[in-house]
Amino acid sequence: MESSIYQIIWNHWHPHPEVIIGLSVIQLAYMFLVGRLNHHSVATEVSSGQIMAFTLGIIIIAICLLSPLHYISDNYLFSAHMLQHVLLTLLAPPLIIFGIPDQAINKSLNVPFLSNVMKLLTHPLVAFFSFNLTFSIWHMPYLYHYSVSLHWVHVIEHSMFIFTAILMWWPIASRSRLLPKLNYPLRIIYLFFLSIAQIIVFGMITFSNDPLYDWYIDAPRLFGISAMLDQQIGGIIMKVGGGGVFLTLLISIFLKWYKAEQDISGDYSVNEKDVFR
Question: pLDDT tens digits for 91-106?
Answer without folding.
Answer: 999 999 999 988 888 8
